[in-house]
Write a structure and sequence with these properties.
The chain is mainly alpha-helical and about 375 residues long. Among the domains are: about 1-35 and about 315-380; about 105-250, no CATH class. Helices cover about 80% and strands about 0% of the residues. The chain contains 18 helices and no strands. α7 (about 125-135) crosses α8 (about 140-150), α8 (about 140-150) packs across α13 and α14 crosses α15. The protein starts with a helix and ends with a helix.
């Protein structure tokens, strides 16, 4: 029975050791994720370290080059370098050549003009054109007049673009008044509006902005005031927007677009678009801004690789805690089983030694008795 118990304890210890071998690494990762869940930079670093290798980096860079997205390709090269992941020299050279071509004077001028006229930028030069247009109210007037005319005519209106244009017209005066102090807000409004136009504003942020704009913009007052506004008569649109916008209720929107402006300034326009695509609300945008301030141009590669998991835990805290709990139980069970097996084996050895010692003593006593019996008659003679 003792031998059977020792065998069963050893089998249990082996099984628990295998369980610990499988669960402890995951428990360590879970503990790290839980520790960094409130720090988007630490969270992203840990997840990137787990996911990024030479194969993933090469695949993402090739994909970006195929899509003619040199900004993303360069972002992955920079991220790979930070995490000491090797990138083939030939592939890095292709990225450098593509970036140089994308930044050529002719391409820059073309994209700047497109951004200025349409308000739909695709790169930094295009965003510069869009930002200049909005800063000098041309872009916001254009959008307010176009969408305002549809509103007055009872046609389908993009109220997000119209509302952001109205807030932009009201905020632009503040940008001039503070000598650029409100520039991040102005830039953030431009990014949000361009993201909506180009389909890169996620559903979560679109819903939040829509609800917020309903409280900030008096649509009835704007509809009656926008009549007669044209691109050649911008003063009418500006006055209508300023009369309709309740800036005292726009604090939430102002905070969000300020964070968007910080992302654009540190990580670039495309990173700001990517952030608005995955964000679900103001808290997400604030976390992306914090990530961008630390990671700069590498932010875009992080967002592409991890998605929303770059700023929030992809799994629930309870699931992570369960991995830690199972690892603790497996280690405790292994230690207990091993301890029980060692104790029983030791006790068995001690008992066998004791029995052997008793047997030897009994044998010695018998031998003495036999010797005494043999010597008894002789002693009598």
């Amino acid at each position: 029975m003792t031998r059977l118990r020792i065998a069963l304890l050893l089998i249990a210890a082996a099984a628990l050791a295998a369980a610990a071998w499988a669960t402890v690494p995951r428990a360590i990762d879970a503990a790290g994720l839980l520790a960094g869940q409130d720090d988007p930079v630490a969270l992203a670093d840990r997840k990137v370290a787990l996911m990024l290798d030479a194969g993933v980096a090469a695949r993402e860079i090739e994909s970006a080059l195929t899509a003619n997205d040199t900004d993303l390709a360069q972002s992955f090269v920079d991220l790979a370098k930070e995490h000491q992941v090797p990138v083939a020299p030939a592939l890095a050279a292709r990225v450098a050549t593509a970036v140089e071509k994308a930044n050529s004077p002719s391409r820059t001028a073309e994209n700047f003009a497109k951004g200025l006229l349409t308000g739909e930028p695709n790169d930094l030069a295009g965003f510069a054109g869009t930002a200049v247009g909005d800063l000098f109210v041309f872009g916001d007037v254009r959008d307010a007049v176009r969408e305002g005319a549809r509103l007055a005519a009872g046609q389908e209106v993009d109220r997000l673009v119209l509302g952001l244009a109205c807030v932009g017209l009201a905020v632009t005066a503040g940008t001039y008044a503070t000598l650029g102090g409100a520039a991040p807000v102005r830039v953030g409004l431009t990014v949000a509006k361009a993201a909506r136009k180009t389909g890169r504003l996620g559903a979560g942020m679109a819903d939040w902005l829509g609800r917020s704009l309903r409280e900030v913009v008096d649509w009835g007052k704007f509809r009656s005031a926008i009549a007669g506004a044209t691109l050649t008569r911008p003063a009418v649109a500006i006055r209508a927007a300023r009369e309709a916008v309740k800036l005292d209720k726009a604090g939430g929107i102002i905070d969000v677009v300020r964070d968007v402006g910080r992302v654009q300034g540190k990580a670039g326009t495309q990173a700001a678009f990517d952030g608005l695509n995955i964000a679900q609300g103001p808290a997400d945008v604030a976390r992306i801004a914090k990530l961008a301030e630390k990671k700069g141009r590498k932010t875009r590669a992080i967002l592409k690789l991890l998605g929303r998991g770059a700023i929030v835990l992809a799994v629930g805290s309870m699931q992570l805690l369960s991995w830690i709990l199972w690892a603790i139980l497996a280690l405790f069970g292994f230690a207990s089983s091993t301890k029980g097996a060692v104790e029983r084996f030791t006790m068995r050895r001690l008992q066998r030694r004791k029995q052997r010692t008793l047997a030897e003593q009994e044998q010695e006593i018998r031998n003495r008795r036999l010797a005494a019996l043999a010597l008894g008659p002789a002693a009598r003679v």
